[in-house]
Amino acid sequence: MFEHISQEQLLNDALDMVKNDVDKREGAIIWDTLSPHTIQLYELYLSMDGMLQEMFGDTASREFLIRLCRDRGIYPYSAEKAILKGEFNIDVPIGSRFSLDTLNYIVIERIGNGVFKLECETVGIVGNNYFGQLIPIEYVDGLASATLTELLIPGEDEEETESLRKRYLDSFEALAYGGNRKDYLEKVHELQGIGGVKAFRIREGIYNVKLVILDSTYNVPSLPLIETLQTAIDPVTNQGEGLGIAAIGHTVLVVGVGESTVSINFPSIVFEDGFDWEDVVLDVQQMVDDYLLELKKGWEVATQIVIRIVQLESKMLEINGIIDVQNTTINGEANNLILEANSIPNRGEITNV
C-alpha cells in the first residue's frame, strides 16, 4: 500500500518545507537534522504496511491468519498419524512395536486372528507410504512373520496455509449451523482421513442424510475408515439421537465414493528419433496418474468428473520423446469419459496398440 513512498522522497518533502534561505545541501545542519527522522518515518510506514497486510485474511501470514481464524471459530486441521493393518503368524501383544524402513509402528487393536491395527509413530502423510515386512523392535515370542499390508486410515500433515485461508474466506459466504449442508461439510472435514465429502438428502430406509466420502489420499476409503466415520457422525446403535456430530433427528448413512476403471489407448504416437513406447511408458503412466489425481482433488466441488481426450493428448506432448499423438481412446471409445456423480477414476491399462 505504501510502495510509492521512499526515504528519499520523505526527506525531499521535509526539505521543501524549509525556507529557501536556509542551506539544505547534504551535510548542512538542516539536512543532517531531518535525515535521521525521515529514516525513522520510512520505517514506520513499512511497519504500517506490514500491519495492514496482517489485518486481512487474504494477505495475512500463517501466524496472523490463525489468529483471525480463531475469531471465526476456525482452527488449522492438525497432523494425524496413519492407521494401518498388520498381519502376523500369531496374536502379538497390544503395544508391541515394529519398524519398517525409517518408520516405527505400534500395535493398538486386534482385528482378527493375527490381524491388528498399527499406528505409525510419526505423524503425517509419510505414514501412508510404506508396506512390507515388519521388524520387531523388541523380542516377540513365537513371531515368525509380520507384514504391514494395508492403509486403513490415512495420516495427514497439518493443514496448509492456503487451505486454511480458503476456509476462513469461505466462512463469510455461508453460515454453518444446526446440521445444514455447510455444517456437515465443515465438521466431517475436521475428522481424520477425509479428502472430500458430499452431503445428500435421501429417503433410503431409516436414513435421511447420506455422506459420500473420499479419503485424504484421494482414493476410495477403507471399511475401517467408513466405520470410524459412521461412529463419529451418527453411531449405528443410536442413530438419529444426535450422539455424534449429526443433528438430532438426522439418521446418517456414511458410504465411500465409487470407483471407475479408466483404460486409455494411445494408438497413434509420433516419437522422436531414438524413442519408442518402452522409453516413454513410465512417463505416460505417471502423467495419467497425475491427471486423474488432479480430477479427484476436485471431486468434492464438481458435479461429475470428466476425463477429456484433449487434456490427455495435450499432456502427452509435454513428455520427452513424443512429437505428436492422435486417435486416443478411453475405455475403447474415442470420446470423453463422464463418470457417475459419486465416482472417481482409477487407472487401468495404458496401451499403445
From TrEMBL:
Domain of life: Bacteria
Similarity remark: Belongs to the Mu gp47/PBSX XkdT family.
Species of provenance: Solibacillus palustris
Stretches assigned to the Baseplate J-like central domain: 176-255
Record's protein name: Baseplate J/gp47 family protein
InterPro entries in UniProt: Baseplate_J-like_C, Baseplate_J_M, Phage_Baseplate_Assmbl_Protein
Domain Baseplate J-like C-terminal: 268-351
